Structure formats: structure tokens, C-alpha cells
Amino acid sequence: MNPLPSRLWAALSVIALTSCASIEPAPTPGSTGAPVAPQWHAPVAHNGKLSELTDWWEQFDDPLMLSLILDGQQASATLAQAVANIADAQAARVGSMAVLLPTLDGVMDASRGRSEPGAPVGSFSSAGLQASWELDIFGANRAAAGATRAELEASMAGWHDARVSIAAEIATTYVELRACEAQIAQAELDVRSRRETARLTELMASSGFQSPAEADLAHASAAQGQVTLAEQNAQCEYLIKSLVALSARNETELRKSLAKQTARLPQPAEFRVAKVPAEVLSQRPDIHAAAHDVVAASADSVEAQALRWPRITLSGNIGSTRIPEGGVSTNGTVWTIGPVAVTLPLFDGGTRRANAEAAQVRYEVATVVYAARLRNAIREVENALVSLQSTATRSDDARRAAEGFTRSYRAVESGYRAGNASLFELEDARRSMVAAQIALIELQRERVAGWITLYRAVGGGWSVDQLEEISGA
């Protein structure tokens, strides 16, 4: 076989050198391509106490919440889909790597017949191997392999993002339920107090010491307290149903478990967010995924450009042949190398050029998306830190307010029983006390939720090693 003319090889080499583009590396938070502020502007959470993010949920003093999170991750359809996405990406990765290697097929052939009139009947049999290999001179296949690798990395990050999201959702719902139970306990105390006030007012009205209007007001107040209690009970029921759906737990068993620590909000461990944003953002799986989306888009652009240039394929085979005819058998080994096929794109109506331009636009969009996710990540962490700082600032005042309004109510209630205070004064003191108690419970819920939000905002203690374990890489 004749080799390719030297001029053709030279032309192909020049084209390869001038047309091949490199795949862009994954951007890093804080780099020139992904600028991030040098430090956080919001206060560091809770004076910068340290603890490990990886074991975050185990550090809550509530084993039931941890078990619900584990059950929820096992039952989550979102997480199952994320695992399937990893499997698909892994398969695509294997396929793209296989394209870089020669293909090898085994071939067996047999026939029997008369080659021409009067000739004896003969047989023909052969067995051999056929190989084909595309010489990836312009890097199209290498770029495709790079894209699938980046997509696999992004899908693994998507798995962890789903895992963190599910954990945060279950934890938030659980905390809301415990706060709701605490508000029910407060509402039940309020209802009993209102009923007792109504009973005493009715007795005093019957004795002529109070007017019938005041008795009506006391009964109306008791009824209103009952309405509030019923509304709070309904809200807690909604939250229990949500936990059942999220964790796939049996509702009867879940209610029994919940009853063991009614109205007790779990307390999280406290940790410090690193002052350098890049160190924090590197934990976020969505940032990791967005970075590899940029890499995949870059690789797709390189592949689209490379497909505009010639493609060279080399074929060959080797085998053993046996031909028995007329009592004579001929055996031997045959082989060929070639042909070398060169496919030259001549005219496609601009399709390849349009695909290359579209791939370049997708790459540019991916970089914009990555930058936007960085800014959003900073905003989420900053907001979580502000929320924690705010709840810490308000905690002592809210507690003092609740205690003060409770003492005031008790004093007015004693005065009302002694006839030194009116029912209107008593109801006003009661409303202030109840509002202060509910505000304190809500503040406690908001603070725990703030820690959960911060956990979610910094990526849930994610690390590359965890992703490698899941992917089996």
C-alpha cells in the first residue's frame, strides 16, 4: 500500500497545530476568572467557635432528628435520581474513553460451492480479527472524553447537593414541628387560664360584683383561646404529615417517637465559617458542579471546532484461511493494513460552523452561570450569618421580655381576683404575655433554622473524597 503523500501529511499537521484548542480548566473561587471578596462582611457566627461540619447532624442533641434524616435520604426519589445520573455519566465516560482506542472484532466466515462450471465442489473457511482506529489528530474525541469526565464530576456533586438539601429540609421541618409543639403547650396554658377567668367572672357576675358584659367578654376570650389552640394543633398535624412523607416512616411509630420529647427544640453545635470565602465556597457542591459545567462546555466547544477538520481512520485485519478443493487444501495466514481513510468536510451548508459557534456561546453562558452561582453562594452565607447575629442579639431581650410580661400578668391576675383590676386590664396583660412567649419560641426556632441554613449555605461539609467514595472512582 502507498503511504499518504508527504504534502498531505504536512498540511494535516499544520491544520492540527493551528486549529486544536485546549479545554479550559475548572475555575476556582477566588481566581481571576471567578473573583470573590477577600473576606466576609457579615459577623462570624457565634464568636467563631469551632466544630466539624462533616459530623454536623450528629452534633445536634436529638437522635430522632438524625434518624429521620437518614431515613429520608434512603427514601428520597431526588437522591435516587441523582445516583442514576451518576451511573449514566459514568457510562458516557467509559464510552468516550473507548472511542480513543482501536476497536477489535472477531470474524468467522465459511462457504461451500462451485466457483465455475466443471470445477470441483470446494469449501472456504476463515477466522480472523478486524481492527479500526480513528487517529484523533485534531482532538475531537479527546475533547468529548474531557466533556464526559467533567459531566461525571458535576453529576457526583449533584448527588451531594441533593443529599444536603434533603437533610436540611427534614431538619427544618422537624425544628418547625418542635416549635409548633412548644406553642401548643403555651396555647394550652393560655386556654386553661382563660377558662378559669371566665369561670370566676361568671361567678362574680352572678353575685352582682361584675356586669354581664364582662362575663360575656371573659367567655369570648376563652372561646378565642380555644380557636387559637385548634389552629396551632392543625399546623402541627401538617408538619407531622410532611415528616412522614419526607422520611417514609410509619406515622403511628413516628408519633410515638415524637411524643418522647414533645416541644423540645434541638440545639445545634456551633462552628466557625472560614474568613476566606474561597475556602468556604469550595465546599459547595453546586459551585463544584458549575465549575465542571464550564469545563464540559469548553470541551464541547473544542470538539465542535475539531469536527470541522478532516478525520482519519486506519483499518486492518489478520486471520487464518483454509480452502479445500479437488482434494487439495490450502491453508495460510492473511493480513492487511489499511486502507487509510481521510474524510474531508467539503460542504454541509454551514452546519459544522454553526454548531461550533453555538458551542462557544454555551461555554460563555456556562461561565456566566458559574459567576452568578458564586455571587448567590456569597449572598446565602452572608444572609445566614446576619440571621444568626440578629437572633443572638435579640435572644436576651426576648427572654427578659417574656419573663417580665409573665410577672406582670400574674400581678394583674392577682389584682383582678382581689377586685383591684378590671377584666380589660387582665386581658391586655394576658395578650402581652402570650405574644412575648410566642415571640421567644419563634426566636429560638429562627436561631436553630439559621444554623441549618448556614450548614446548607456552606455546602454541608462536602469534600471531594466523599464524592469519590460514592462514584467508586
TrEMBL record:
* Family membership noted in the UniProt record: Belongs to the outer membrane factor (OMF) (TC 1.B.17) family.
Q: Where in the cell is it found?
A: Cell outer membrane
| Organism of origin | Stutzerimonas zhaodongensis
Q: Which GO terms describe its cellular component?
A: cell outer membrane
Endpoints of the signal sequence: 1-21
What the entry lists under InterPro entries is as follows: MdtP/NodT-like, OMP_efflux
Q: What is its main location?
A: membrane
- UniProt-recorded name of the protein: Efflux transporter outer membrane subunit
Keywords on record: Cell outer membrane, Lipoprotein, Membrane, Palmitate, Signal, Transmembrane, Transmembrane beta strand
